[in-house]
Amino acid sequence: MPVDLSPEALEKGETMIQAKQLVKNYDAFRAVDGVDFDVQKGECFGFLGPNGAGKSTLMKMVYCFSPRSAGELSIFGLDPDLKPAEIKNRIGVVAQTDNLDEQVSVIQNLEIYAGYFGLSRRETKNKIQSLLGFMALEAKSKARIKELSGGLKRRLVIARALLNDPEILILDEPTTGLDPQVRHLIWAKLRELKGQGVTLLLTTHYMEEAHELCDRLLVMDKGKVLDSGKPRDLVQKSMPPYVLELPATLQKNLGALPTAVHMEAHGDKLFLYSTSPDVLEKVAVSLSGEFRIRTTGLEDLFLKLTGRDLHDSD
Amino acid sequence: MEISQSTSKPVPSTFRRLMAVCYRHMTTYNRNFFTNSFGVVLEPLIFFMAVGWGLASAIGSIDGVPYLVFLVPGQIMTSVVYSVAFETSYGTYFRLEMDHNYDSMMVTPLGVSDIFWGELLYVGVRAAFFSTIPLVIFGVWGLILSPWAVLVPLVCFFTAIAIGSLGLFANRLVKSLNQFNFFVSGLIAPLLFFSGTLFPIDKIPKAVAFVMAWMPLYPSINLCRMLTTGHFQPELWVTLVYVVLVPWPLGYLGVKCIRPKLIK
Fold first, then answer.
1. Assigned domain for A307 exists
2. In sequence order, what E strands does A137-211 have?
3. pLDDT (tens digit per residue) in A132-146
4. Residue numbers of A between 37 and 66 with CB closer than 8 Å to B
5. Range list of H helices, B142-188
6. pLDDT in tens, A120-133
7. Residue A152 and residue A94 share a domain
8. CB-CB under 8 Å, A103 with B109
9. Measured between CB atoms, does B37 come within 8 Å of chain A?
10. In the prediction, which pLDDT does A293 show?
11. Does B9 fall in a domain?
């Protein structure tokens, strides 16, 4: 069935972003290869994948930075090739790199950026005050960018992306390289924004982040979609609920495994999966040493779907 | 903090977008205003003192005016051209490849045209502003012979846009920062030396003079010289039209050339 991408149809279902068979080629290299997805108003939609999976390229297409090579894409029912300024006026973008104006202060960075959205002087002043408060940056408002830590810069970039009251906030690996405190602060702020009805679109390779924030996930690798759905459903439908991790050196000590146990060997580790923790418990006690049985999660799913081999980083 | 979810946010007008880009450059430049403007103002003055105390007394007059008076327009233009050429070659390269400032602008309602036309207008305004400082000093020195000289900043504005566009071309061609040497030493320097800055253009071989006469600097210097000396030449109108009109197609091509560096 052809997808109705008219503004009226999207308004009804509150579909904010719709992509059909989206393709991006860089010369001979295909970075995004026939991806379908839709993002509904008010949800947090996540792209999960290893480095080089095509997540950032996909984001760049959505925020009208990178024109698509083939397929259909609409944001607010508008075509990014035809109406980039209209779309960009209504979204906020936190790119992977901070791209701040290093020479000037925190407040000047925000003033400059507000200008790009045509905010009046009064709007700019009020908005900056409330955003500095929201991201807990008041004490640093006069500091130059060079004096800020990585976490502060990230908070500023998020504040900057909120200047135009975006309907969709796009975040490309928002917490990569940050310490746990900052990461939790950012997660809390993103949840708060979601509570206010802001639609969130984010990429990550942190399973914890995907689990904390995302209502729906799309797992990608090498430009293709591997699976999609709610985080819990994704794990449940393709993984047994329990796993026992063992060093590979213990393989020779294992006797015949019960039929209810499925074993996979990856690198220097063995992964024993089962629907029953008791069965795994029996295997564990037959070995000398402390081994913990844990529930399977996104990390296991991610590694299963994308393979446990090392990927070339991008 | 409240996010207001109204969908009736108009896209800022082209004028506001261009002004926003100019504001960005002005704010970042002004943060180091003294350092940044030091050379632009001081260099033509140092050159002048050296020549004034030394060379000028030996040369006497050229084209019916004292040599120092002859030198004024070329010197104002030289500092303008160098500052603009560096801004849109090295400066633009840094914003493009190192600091990625344009990337953060591209995710706002700004497009490539807004960003680079804004940049060209900014260098134009900056050039006009900085030309007033030596203009005043030379005026006090008694080297400005005509009140028409008040229009020199306007000539600098147009010239800066033309030269700035050349910087954008250069950005399309270079593969590393070092390659701007070809631009600065290979294009800008000869352009400056052979465009009637230090001696009249008719003193160089005819073929070279012909080429130089149509490059985007000689007409500007010639026009400035008419304005500062009050000796208007028959080619005034052709020169004026050239100076006012040529920057725009050059700017258009410059912006067109740099587009693929940003959008991939």
1. no
2. 168-172, 199-204
3. 999 999 999 999 999
4. 63-66
5. 152-173, 180-183
6. 999 999 999 999 99
7. yes
8. no
9. no
10. 87
11. no
Strand, coil or helix: what is A269? strand
Residues in CB range of B226: below 8 A, 6 or more apart: B148, B232, B233, B236, B239
pLDDT of residue B36: 77
Residues A127 and A21 in one domain: yes
Residue A63, domain extent: 7-235
Considering only CB atoms, which chain B residues are within 8 Å of A116? 12, 17, 20-21, 105, 108-110
Q: Check CB contact of A95 with chain B, cutoff 8 Å.
A: yes
Q: Judge: B104–A103 Cβ closer than 8 Å, yes or no.
A: no
Read off the amino acid at residue A281: E
Nearest CA among A95, A96, A59, A90 for reference residue A77: A90
Q: What is the ipTM of this complex?
A: 0.90
Q: Do B108 and A101 touch (CB under 8 A)?
A: no
Give me the residues of A, 121-150, that contact B with CB < 8 A: 130-131, 133-134
Which of A116, A145, A162 would best serve as a mutation to test chain B binding (most B beta carbons within 10 A)? A116
Smallest CA–CA distance from A98 into chain B, residue: B104
Is B111 within 8 Å of chain A by CB? yes
Q: Looking at A68-72, A193-197, B39-43, B130-134, which range is the least confident one?
A: B39-43
Domain that holds residue B22: 14-54+61-262
- A112 and B20: CB-CB below 8 Å? yes
Round to whole Å and give the CA distance between A89 and A80.
12
- Sign of the torsion formed by the C-alpha atoms of B198, B202, B204 and B208: positive
User: What average pLDDT does this structure show over A102-108?
Assistant: 94
Domain count, chain B: 1
What would the two tokens of residue A145 be?
């960018």
Rounded to a whole number of angstroms, the distance from the CA of B27 to the nearest CA of chain A is 7
For residue A94, the tally of other CB atoms under 10 A from its CB is 23
* Chain B positions in Cβ-Cβ contact with residue A160 (cut-off 8 Å): 104
Instruction: Examine residue A53 and state whether it is found in any structural domain, yes or no.
Output: yes
Whole-angstrom distance, CA of residue A216 vs CA of residue A189: 19
Residue B261 has pLDDT above 60, yes or no: yes
